Amino acid sequence: MTVSFSHYIPPRNFEDVSKEFVQPIPDDYFIWWLFRRRCVMCSKSATEINEIVPRGRSKKSILDWRNRVTLCRSCHDEFHHNGVTAEKIKVMQEKRNYVLLATGRAEYVNYDGV
Ligand SMILES: [Zn+2]
Q1: How many other C-beta atoms lie within 10 A of the C-beta of residue 70?
Q2: Containing H/E element for 87?
Q3: CA of 7 to the centre of ligand 1 (A)
Q4: Who wins on pLDDT, 34 or 18?
Q5: Torsion of CA 31, 32, 36, 42, to 10 degrees
Q6: Residue 55 — pLDDT band, cuts 50, 70, 90?
Q7: Taking residues 42-51, what's their average pLDDT?
Q8: C-alpha 41 – ligand 1 centre gap (Å)
Q9: What's the pLDDT at 97?
Q10: What does the pLDDT average to over 29-50?
Q11: How many A from CA of 89 to the centre of ligand 1?
Q12: CA separation (Å) from 47 to 35, 75, 86, 97?
């Protein structure tokens, strides 16, 4: 029997099967998985997890997976060198979203900021 995909017609109720977004568990394992062990700034092998909005400025930052990214040592040092500015935070949030879009993980992009 031959199946012709060119004549496939989606079911009328196709919207019902769209998957629901499940909030991830914000642990280290998830963060390493999310960024495929790559530095979000330079895409080299990551060695550490960074909070984009530093601990202390936002009490919930450490618990919020949207605020955590993996970095290499060099980019992590650069981020904290001379203090974390609003500009650095903005750049890293944009990089985070860019990496997620580029690696097919658009559902984890954060459009609201942290
Ligand atoms: Zn890096």
Answers
A1: 26
A2: helix 86-102
A3: 47
A4: 34
A5: 90
A6: confident
A7: 96
A8: 5
A9: 96
A10: 96
A11: 15
A12: 12, 10, 24, 20
Question: What is the distance in A from the centroid of ligand 1 to the CA of 75?
Answer: 4
CA-atom Rg of the chain in angstroms: 18
Evaluate if residue 11 carries a pLDDT over 70. no
Q: Supply the DSSP symbol for 85.
A: -
Please state, in angstroms and rounded to a whole number, the distance separating the CA atoms of residues 39 and 12.
43
What lies within 8 Å, CB to CB, of 25 at 6+ separation is 65
Question: Would you state the structure tokens that stand for residue 26, as one six-digit string?
Answer: 């914000």
How many alpha carbons lie under 13 Å from residue 108 in its C-beta half-sphere? Answer: 26
Cα of 74 to ligand 1 centre, how many Å?
Answer: 6
Task: Please tell me the pTM assigned to this model.
Answer: 0.77
How many Cβ atoms from other residues are within 10 Å of residue 25's Cβ? 8
Total H helices, total E strands in the chain: 3, 2
Q: Does residue 54 register a pLDDT over 70? A: yes
